[in-house]
TrEMBL record:
Residues 84-152 form the N-terminal domain. Residues 377-396 are annotated as: Disordered. GO terms for molecular function: single-stranded DNA binding. This is Uncharacterized protein. The lineage of its organism: Bacteria, Bacillati, Mycoplasmatota, Mollicutes, Mycoplasmataceae. Residues 256-316 form the IrrE N-terminal-like domain. It comes from the Bacteria. It comes from Mycoplasma mycoides subsp. capri LC str. 95010. It holds the Pfam family ArdcN. Residues 377-387 have a biased composition (Basic and acidic residues).
Amino acid sequence: MLSDNPILNIDFIEDGNIKQDNELENSKQKESTLKTEVKETSQLTKVSSNEKWTVKEVEEQKAKETDYFKQLVEKADKEIEEIFHKPEELKNFFAFATTLQNNYSSRNLMLIHQQFPGATIVKSFTEWKREDLSVKKGEKGIKIIRPLVDEYVVINNNGENQKVFKKNWTRDIWQKIKNNEIEVYEDLLGFKPANVFDIAQTNLPKEEYPEDYFNDFIDEDTARLKFNELVLSELKSFVKEKNIELKPKASLGQARGLTATNDLGQKVIYLNEHNSTKENIVTLLHEYAHIKFNHSYKTTERAECEYQAEMTAWALAKTLKVDTTENSYKYIGRWLQTSNVVDKRKWMDETISTLKVIRQELNQHILKSIETRMERKKELEEKEEKKHKQVLSLKQ
C-alpha cells in the first residue's frame, strides 16, 4: 500500500495474520520522524553535506514537521470518531488497546496504532535507558502527543480568587502546599509531539521479553518441522528468483511481516524474526500474493486486498501440504465482516485467476529444483561408482 506520508516514498503491504485492524499506509511505524532534529540556532549542519542550515530553512523544516504532525493527529481524531460506527474495527482497536501495556489516551492509542500496529510495550528513549536498554540504531520514533501542563494554586487576594502559577510561588505558598493547606491544580496549556519506541525496537533479547508477549503467535508445528523447513527453504529460493529481497526483522512488534520497496525500486519482504516456520510460510505466500495482485489500499478496498492475499496464501499452503486453515479463516472472516461490498464474486474470480498463475510459477520452480537435486544426486553416484572402481582396480 502506498504511504500517504508526503515525506516518504515507501510502498507497504501488511502481514498475513495481523491481529489488529490497521492501515498499512501508516505501517512501518509511519517513519514520521524527520532524520534531523532542528535546533534553535542560526546555522546548523545539514545531514547530506557540509553546508549549513539558514534560519529560513530551519523554520521551513519546523513547519513541515508541525504540518505533518497536525495531519497525523487530525487523522487519529477522525478515525476515533468513525470507528464507533464500525463494530469490527472497534473490537479490533480495543483488542490493540488492551494488548498495549501503557496507559494512554484514545488519541495516543490511535496514533500508535496508525504508526506501529504491532506495538505492545512503548516507552520514551529516556525511559528505556533507565532500564539499561538502548533503542537500536536506525529505529524511528512513534509520534505521540504529550500535554504541556503548568501547576497553579488559587489564592484569595482582597476577596478575589487569583491563579498563581508555579514559577511565581513564594516560600509562604510552598509551605502551605507542604502542610496541605492549599490545593495544587493543573492547567493544560497545550500539546507537543514526543517520540516513544516499542520493545521490539530495543536491544532487549527476545528471550527476555515478558512471558505473555508471544501469546498471539502461531505455535510451531513440531511434528512436521523438518518438512515445513524444507517448504520454507523452497519458497525463499522461489521469491529470490523473482528479484524480491527477503529479510528478517525484529522491530515489527506482533505484525507477522510487511512488504516495502527499497531505494532501487526492488520489493523487499520483511518477516518477523519471532515467527514460527509455519507462520513464515503463510506470511511469505501472503506477501507475495499482494505483490502479484499489485495491491494498493488507495485504489482497492482493504478488505478485498486482505481477502485475496490470505485466500491465495491459504490455498497455496494447502497445495504444499501445510495446513493453515484455522488461522487463515479467522483472518479472512474478520475482513469479510468489515466490507460493505455485497457481490464479492469479482474478488473470488481474481483470486482464482492469480492463484493459478502463482501455482504454475511454484510448480515450475519446484520441478526445476527437483531436476537440480537429481542431477546432483546422479553426479554424486557417478563419483562414488568411479571411486569404487578405482578401489577395485587397486586391489587387483
